[in-house]
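Hello Y.,

Per our agreement to keep a running log of every chain we model this quarter, I'm adding this entry. I've kept the format consistent with earlier entries: sequence first, then predicted structure.
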Amino acid sequence: MRVAMIGSGYVGLVSGACFSEFGIEVICVDKDADKIARLQGGEVPIYEPGLDELLARSAADERLTFSTDLVAAVAGADAVFIAVGTPSRRGDGHADLAYVHQAAREIAAALNGYTVIVTKSTVPVGTSREVARIVREARPDADFDVASNPEFLREGSAIGDFMRPDRVVIGTDSERAREVMRQIYRPLYLIETPIIFTEPETAELIKYAANAFLATKITFINEIADLCEKVGADVHDVARGIGLDGRIGRKFLHPGPGYGGSCFPKDTLALVRTAEQAGAPMRIVETVVEVNAARKKAMAGKIIAHCGGSVEGKTIAVLGLTFKPNTDDMREAPSLDIIPALQGAGARVRAYDPAGLEAAKRLLDGVVWCEGVYEAMEGADALVIVTEWNAFRALDLARVKRLMKAPVMIDLRNIYDPEEMSAAGFRYASVGRPPRPEEPGDGG
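Predicted structure for the entry above:
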């Protein structure tokens, strides 16, 4: 089979590489000639564990190629996947479908024989029907069907998610299109992956509903963490106690500074706007959006409080800038709220991230960028862990104390044990875990 992937960003590149691993001939297309040239030269423009090896193997076996020529890629393809960006539209929060609609028009002009056009991008309910309308209007003679095939890839573990997914969702009214999609996903069918066929509207809503529910779990446990701090409870014990209930589950019950990234922020907001338009407002999701935005902004206040109530003239070391580990993605990262707020309060910030420095430099000003973990904490009055990279989980605490002016750590990801940090002589603060009786104070 032959597949064209329109858009070689995160979703398109990972999906294209994984489809090629299935033995499918894949052409990844992008308008960015520089990106395509880099990919043709073996350079991977995004950070995703294992992707470089997968791309190199598929390219060497000539199953995966890269091009700026959409017409040539679409001609003769059994399926054309639209994997372009759908950012939040400025001003109203709706998903901006300009790139999807443009891709549909360009695909229409290039169609040659029966083709399944697949929306892989995260799109609001009704988009697949609109894509079909655009193509039919441009090419009344074209032989095609449209299907919705939302992605459920987690940055940092995307290849495993694609190769061993919880489910594959395909929305189409056409049995002919279903058969093409069955053939594309045949390797997953053979390992008994649940493949759910629905109407296009249902498939589109499944994606938004899934992300909104996970964002709600994160926001819920964050609010429980705040309550734990007030009443002397431990949020980790609470999370374990409720997570062992099979109806709730243990995943996404990890307290922290709020969710970020390319999906949850824009998808929850887009779902809220879609629901408003449909006359079925989603009050829970609306609250999740508001609470999460407020939480990221409040984290700087938490840090300042544990630095004695003021960071004026102090040096704060920040470890972790990306919204999660194992990615270089800075979109909606909590650090983008935390660092400017600390600077606004008079702090000097020294920062390090294993993969996100270059992206962070384009988004943050006035930061001292460091090339290593320990370089960041030299002369610092406090150390803040914002992203839970593995490289931060086993710091040499004796060395940390020697490098810092004061042994103060604010751990926004709870990767250290409060009792161990107290024993090591640190004034330690975390999220949803009150100081132990034998611990020093909170820095006041």
